[in-house]
Amino acid sequence: MLSDDQLAAIVQDFYGYVLEQENKLRLRHGRIPEEVRVRRAEHFSTVAKQARADLGANEFGSVAFISEAMLRKHKLAGQLDETSRNQVSQVLMRGGIELAEAVRARYEGDFNFEPRDKLLARKVEALFAAPANKGFVAPHWLTFKQAQALGAQVRKGERASQVVYAGTLNRTEIDEAGAEVERGIPFLKAYAVFNADQIDGLPDRFIPRPLEAIPDHTRNAQAEAFVAATAADVRHGGPRAYYSPSGDHIQMPPFASFNEAEGYYATLCHELTHWTGHSTRLDRDLSRTRWGDAAYAAEELLAELGAAFICAQLQLTPQVREDHAAYIACWLKVLKADKRAIFTAAGQAQRAADFLLAFIHPVEPLTDGLPS
């Protein structure tokens, strides 16, 4: 039997290669007629539906050729028993479903499709988690050539991280009336980059200013006991705070990177509120939340309210975060579209706060009558 990491590497390789080729083909051609665009979107929707039926029936014939090709590429051909070969076929079928959905989304104008399958989602998450996982603090990333152009040098033995740049290629075309029109064609391009922490000789502007460490005696004993009681997997490192649904862990910047202890605990309470949404806890749907859409804004509003409720119980002063302005703009879209959204978010935030605070003492339910 192959490990999850081995299976993830195979399916991610297949998924990324096909989408890259699809994008290259798209960029080489001009405008896609509307009837063709609609027909292709419908076709790939049908492909995804059929692949789901095949996957449910353990019918792997459609990926047999791909399975053999990927096994050869990963130097596993002829080394696996039938069970392991079926494992590979199964994950490639899963990847095929996501591919069909991703290509369908592109024909519908969405180039930000994020795979729901956990083995593929791990790759997307890894791009954002790279600074934290590797302990980097600097927010700057450069290619090898960019570093050299600045008179700097990547240290020997350092490994690059993969990032994806999303841009638009402008092209002048002739429309049906014979007039010239400018058309933007979205594209994706992968780069190998290094964090500024991996590079010697960079100008001072790329070097983070040393942080004045918050003394340990400023840690809040009650808040520390609360976090420990939840038994949440809280990891420290990197410049970003986030909750990973696929990994079910919270990533936090180092305690010393915050200006005040209250800011650290308020941010951690925000992420803990997200943590309650996992399927093993309050089971909120976190699979379709991406920046800018209504589901993302609603979940962020919920988390901010939940953090405020928890901070009030722990007698902490909530802090204004640097990203609050962007979040508020996103929240306003939801609140304008649904006048009851604030009440729904408040109800779910109170349920999350009750769930968390129950780890340290019984909480009298305050959710009766609030919308779910």
What does this protein structure show overall?
The protein has 372 residues and is α+β, with helices and mostly antiparallel strands. The chain has 3 domains: 1-114, no CATH class; 134-209, no CATH class; 216-357, no CATH class. The protein is built from 11 helices and 8 strands. It has helices at 4-28, 34-56, 64-73, 82-107, 118-133, 144-149, 221-230, 261-275, 294-314, 324-337, 341-357; strands spanning 141-142, 153-154, 161-174, 180-195, 199-200, 234-236, 242-244, 249-252. The strands form 3 sheets. The protein has a 3-stranded antiparallel sheet. A 3-stranded mixed sheet has the order 6-8-7, covered by helices on one side. The longest helix is centred in the first third of the chain and has 26 residues, at 82-107.
How many domains is the backbone divided into? 3
How does the helix and strand content classify structurally? alpha+beta
Beta-strand residue fraction: 5-15%
Name the average pLDDT: 79
Roughly how much helix do the residues carry, as a percent range?
Answer: 40-55%
Q: Write down the Rg.
A: 24 Å
Q: Describe the largest sheet.
A: 3 strands, antiparallel
Low-confidence stretches: 288-292, 363-372
The number of helical runs is 11
Q: Care to count the β-strands?
A: 8
> What string gives the helices and strands in order?
HHHHHEHEEEEHEEEHHHH
Cα distance spanning the termini = 42 Å
| Strand order of the biggest β-sheet | 1-4-3
- Overall shape: globular
